[in-house]
Design goal:
The structure holds 2 protein chains of 2 kinds. By secondary structure, chain A is mostly beta strands. Helix content of chain A is 0%, strand content 53%. In chain A, strands 2, 4, 5, 9, 10 and 11 form a 6-stranded mixed β-sheet that branches. In chain A, strands 1-3-8-7-6 form a 5-stranded antiparallel β-sheet, with no helix packed on it. Chain A is globular, with a radius of gyration of 13 Å. Chain A starts with a strand and ends with a strand. Chain B is globular. In chain B, the strands form 2 sheets. In chain B, strands 2, 4, 5, 6, 9, 10 and 11 form a 7-stranded mixed β-sheet that branches. In chain B, strands 1-3-8-7 form a 4-stranded antiparallel β-sheet, with no helix packed on it. Classes of the chains: A mainly beta, B mainly beta.
Chain lengths: 113, 117
Amino acid sequence: GESVGLHLPTLSVQEGDNSIINCAYSNSASDYFIWYKQESGKGPQFIIDIRSNMDKRQGQRVTVLLNKTVKHLSLQIAATQPGDSAVYFCAENSGAAGNKLTFGGGTRVLVKP
Amino acid sequence: EPEVTQTPSHQVTQMGQEVILRCVPISNHLYFYWYRQILGQKVEFLVSFYNNEISEKSEIFDDQFSVERPDGSNFTLKIRSTKLEDSAMYFCASVKRGTSGGATEQFFGPGTRLTVL
């Protein structure tokens, strides 16, 4: 079936360095993509989103890149901080209002002091 | 800042018992969802709800599950006869309608941890 998946289950990064988290999706009809951060015992927290008519979007310390040709999504975190330690999920849907999200498997980011 | 709330934070129940998980979505949101996350696994869609009816459900959402919006603020998930494999975190989410009518961010609650013994 169609799915969204992640390449790296765990990423260790030195505090202050940049982090890159990758995600592959298989549904070419996907139109809307989101990155969520999940801290232990909490619900997914929105980080940034992007629609398929864009290939890059920037937020505060985060950038999402979308490559529709190879169906690849990445999240870049600049100057990673200890508070960035969490599990990061990509998710996608068709872009229609109210559509469900399909989540990837998650990448754990560990920030070393 | 408005947020989705869920109660209880942790529910322990015996196999075969009924449980009701409660959610209060953000007040001006129109779409409501339940997702679950088995420990160590990814978040899985269960059901979406719009205009007082189910708009989509996954194959996980079988006859043992039901949802209800009994009033203007609460959104509940009922599991009629719990099984061991229902043990998971259950997340409620809600969405406002985007200005362009397309998909927008889903806001998630903190979750209810359901433990079935």
